[in-house]
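Hi V.,

You were right to ask for the full record rather than a summary. Here it is.
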Amino acid sequence: MEHEYDTWNTLKKKLNARTTPIYANTREIWWCSFGLNVGTELYGKHELFERPILVLKVFNTETIKVIPLTSHTPNKFHIPVRCGDIVSYGSIAHIKTISTKRLSRKVGRIDIQQFKEIIAVYKQSI
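Predicted structure:
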């Protein structure tokens, strides 16, 4: 994947140039251009370097805290996240604050009870 850093940097410049605000809310799941990262950090896939994320906190229209989702086998650092019939796992170790410019399309929203459970597990991990 070494050769794709230039492709990611080109896309990142386009994302940064966006001027239309994207409004996200807590509990929503979005596809996000997560990019190519270093070492064992989670990264996006495909031509848009995307992965799904769950919005944990909205700071303002430009900045949100997210938990990246994965379909990989769960471990003690993964929280189950159900959206409809799909179960993914939120990676507690990879929670980060991002720009809403990275968001591309909304998938859905999880229910409030599940969200409270996820936040409780997250708080226990810190």
